[in-house]
């Protein structure tokens, strides 16, 4: 059996960030396990700019951002297993993996960092009626075809969902000569970043139809068109508003799901809202010594935040190896009115020196609202926020001093109060 | 006086900036929260610019395409022409990240650089 201090599962931005941080902090007996042929993960196909403004103070494309970390992994000579699939992890931190050279093998890990990322919600997850022709694909698949393989998936395109990948692909397909007829969004707001609405849709006069959805897909062998309709406040289609749009391709950008099959198998507790593991302030899952960071924990908007989270997971893993564990969580963290979820889901302030960073998303768009943190009836914090939107993750740092006022029985609750 | 409302795209904050204009002159700029945002707002009302990111065909590499970008933002109205110009290009592996593949594209004064390493395809 192989032995490593830290085993990192996934070689995308989270795994790379964690590996580089662990090495730089002196833990060198580590390995990254990646199922693809190359490191870099999804960044490899994100050839657009906008990455790295926080991390490197310059604007990079996805492959450039990834390369900065890959260069370090190579410079430090960190162990990397490519084209290797992890089959199982156990609560006592045994990792079972397989590749074509070694066959099936096992590793004993001092600590494990989960960095498997997420995958896209497919058509099946949103149940659009109609036929099953060719020409329906997720935005990420379309991105891979266009940016890595050199295929244009269609000429006349409708995009369902206005997540960031969908917006980026609207521009990308337009630049490559396709006609993007509309981006259709069921919600009354876009779940993508504002900057992407401006530079991907408005720049190219692509209509964004809010409170609309696709109600039927037409075509037998190939998509021939879609019927779209307005939806009411319960997101039910209003059939009188139905209209037909001819197109040969329907691209879905309807959300991302953290990829946690391995976590489930290991008995790690998952948060039904985030789809990722329930973690404490150390980013440790319900199984001691197994940590999570990046999109496997919660779907992020910015890779820079993934890197920051990965660093934290690496430092926690190092502490786990050296100190043997952490104090049990004694305060629960809950999402109250107006907040969809909060990570971490439980804490113990005795484990930290200064402060804890909480990340969350609101349930709706709020303007000039108050973001509040309460323990029972007592306010720990009230902060004015000009704009809150589900498309943009909220960061709240709470100091140890503030958190010491939290009541163990009541826990703490994050909520939005309208101004 | 004319007021132009723009959304800053420099970073994901997406600041809403108001620019007051009179006779083509900028009178005031409000709502930005960093120097880059101020710069963006000035450009956006006079000469809007965007970074172009795309790919060019590649031969003999580990991928059939090589991702590229303009080193700096270029005038928005040139984007289409730049895409057509880059469609003519084919590079041969190996290529290093950051290499210039077109100097001063269409007289914009901006170079087009590669954004990834392209390795020679291993013959197996």
Automatic annotation (TrEMBL), chain A:
It comes from the Bacteria. The keyword Oxidoreductase applies. Transmembrane segments: none annotated. Pfam families: Pyr_redox_2. GO terms for molecular function: oxidoreductase activity. Keywords: Oxidoreductase. PANTHER family: ANAEROBIC GLYCEROL-3-PHOSPHATE DEHYDROGENASE SUBUNIT B. This is Thioredoxin reductase.
Automatic annotation (TrEMBL), chain B:
Gene3D superfamilies: CPE0013-like. This is CxxC motif-containing protein. It comes from Caldanaerobacter subterraneus.
């Amino acid at each position: 059996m192989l032995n490593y201090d830290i085993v990192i599962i996934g070689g995308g931005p989270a795994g790379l960030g964690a590996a580089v941080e662990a090495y730089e902090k002196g833990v060198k007996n580590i390995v990254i396990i990646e199922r693809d042929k190359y490191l870099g993960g999804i960044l490899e196909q994100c050839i657009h700019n906008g990455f790295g403004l926080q991390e490197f103070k310059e604007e990079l494309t996805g492959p450039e951002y990834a390369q900065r970390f890959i260069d370090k992994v190579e410079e430090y000579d960190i162990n990397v297993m490519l084209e290797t699939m992890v089959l199982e992890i156990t609560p006592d931190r045994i990792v079972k993996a397989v590749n074509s050279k070694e066959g099936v093998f096992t590793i004993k890990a001092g600590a494990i960092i989960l960095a498997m990322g997420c995958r896209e919600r497919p058509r099946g997850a949103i149940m659009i009626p109609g036929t099953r022709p060719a020409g329906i694909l997720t935005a990420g698949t379309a991105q891979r075809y266009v940016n890595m393989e050199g295929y244009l998936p269609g000429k006349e395109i409708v995009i369902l969902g206005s997540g960031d990948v969908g917006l980026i692909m609207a521009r990308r397909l337009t630049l490559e000569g396709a006609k993007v007829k509309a981006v259709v969004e069921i919600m009354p707001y876009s779940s993508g970043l504002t900057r992407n609405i401006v530079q991907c849709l408005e720049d190219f006069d692509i209509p964004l139809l809010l409170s609309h959805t696709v109600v039927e897909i037409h075509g037998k062998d190939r998509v021939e068109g879609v019927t779209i309709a307005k939806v009411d406040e319960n997101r039910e289609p209003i059939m009188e508003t139905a209209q037909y749009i001819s197109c040969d391709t329907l691209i879905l950008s309807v959300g991302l799901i953290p990829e946690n099959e391995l976590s489930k198998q290991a008995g790690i507790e998952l948060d039904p809202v985030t789809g990722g593991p329930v973690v404490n302030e150390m980013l440790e899952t319900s199984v001691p010594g197994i940590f999570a960071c990046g999109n496997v924990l919660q779907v992020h908007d910015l890779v820079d935040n993934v890197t920051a989270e990965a660093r934290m997971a690496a430092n926690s893993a190092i502490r786990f190896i050296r100190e043997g564990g952490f104090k049990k969580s004694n305060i629960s963290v809950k999402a109250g009115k107006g907040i969809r979820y909060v990570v971490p889901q439980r804490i113990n302030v005795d484990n930290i020196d200064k402060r804890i960073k909480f990340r969350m998303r609101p349930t709706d768009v709020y303007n000039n609202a108050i973001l509040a943190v309460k323990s029972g009836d007592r306010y720990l914090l009230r902060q004015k926020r000009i704009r809150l939107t589900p498309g943009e993750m909220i960061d709240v740092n709470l100091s140890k001093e503030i958190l010491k006022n939290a009541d163990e029985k009541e826990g703490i609750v994050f909520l939005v109060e309208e101004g | 006086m004319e007021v132009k409302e723009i959304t800053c795209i420099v970073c994901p904050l997406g600041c809403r900036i108001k620019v007051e204009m009179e006779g083509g002159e900028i009178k005031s700029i409000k709502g930005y929260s960093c120097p880059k945002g101020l710069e963006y707002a000035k450009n956006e009302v006079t000469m809007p610019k965007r970074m172009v990111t795309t790919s060019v065909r590649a031969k003999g590499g580990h991928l059939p395409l090589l991702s590229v970008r303009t080193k700096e933002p270029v005038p928005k109205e040139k984007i289409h022409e730049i895409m057509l110009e880059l469609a003519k290009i084919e590079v041969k592996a190996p290529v290093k990240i950051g290499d210039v593949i077109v100097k001063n594209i269409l007289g914009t004064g901006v170079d087009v650089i590669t954004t990834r390493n392209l390795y020679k395809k291993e013959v197996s």
